[in-house]
Amino acid sequence: MSHPTTRMLAMLELLQANHRMGGAELARRLGVDERTVRRYATRLEELGVPVVAERGRYGGYRLMPGYKLPPLMLNDDEATAVVLGLLAGRRVGLPGQATESALAKVQRVLPAALRERVQALQDTLDFTLAPRDAAAPATAALLTLAGAARARRRVLLRYRSWQGTESERQLDPYGLVFHSGRWYVTGHDHRSGETRTFRVDRVLSAEPGTDTYDVPDDLDPVQHVTRSLARVPYAHQVDVVLDTTLEEARRRVPASTATLSRVDGGVLMTTRADDLDGMARMLAGLGWPFVIRRPAELRDAVRRLADTLRAHADRTG
Fold first, then answer.
1. In angstroms, rounded to a whole number, what is the distance separating the alpha carbons of residues 288 and 247?
2. What is the pLDDT of residues 123-154, one digit of tens each?
3. Which of 80, 117, 123, 211 has its CA 20 to 30 A from that of 220?
């Protein structure tokens, strides 16, 4: 790093990666004296890069807040990490259009050799996880809810239900959760007086207010969202006691599909189902002995599955 231009670009990269750096630390990292660091800062300002010099005992250098640098400053490892993150995000259900445009922008500004290597990664990489269709929320609503949750500010929410009914409500947002390709916000809904979960892609608008609130100490947004999804109404209420430990059951049964609790004889799995034949297949796939408490029709579904498997086992040729 002997050329002054190389050192100046290295200084820019250091300021991009750090909120603030002291003059002595920059001088040490660049291998120059502090007077040269000041000269580099002045030169960067002349080139249109707003470097702010802070005077005093605890002074230093930083980039002006809000200044955006293009991803030309990414090294090979950083560029690969960005591409991998975007590819994985697209697979798990992040908004496709934004992901694709961000990926294209990163690739356009990469050096030719690195761009070829990254393209090879994109062309040959595959996932065991099946792609999901994302329900993309409005960016403004997502950012407003995130800011309100961090600042503990009540928001005025306009919401459209799955039935198409629009409503207006005051919400104290506790947190945002991304689950299975969808964004959710959970918080205290003043209209119902309960802690509720809302899909962010159904939020028509969110306006922050001035009222503040406290979050209950025992409130976990992730647990509340997964439990809320597990309580979505279906045709049948299902209670089955699994002959296993609670720890094993939690490893095999997602919290978003069932509620698990210790009982005499094992673990009580409480869930809902429209398709009892599918529930029978799920129980068989778990591989544990079980006792069906309800519904009685689930017993018939398990018997039908057993008869079908027996018939398959008896086939020859």
1. 14
2. 887 776 666 555 667 778 888 999 999 999 99
3. 211
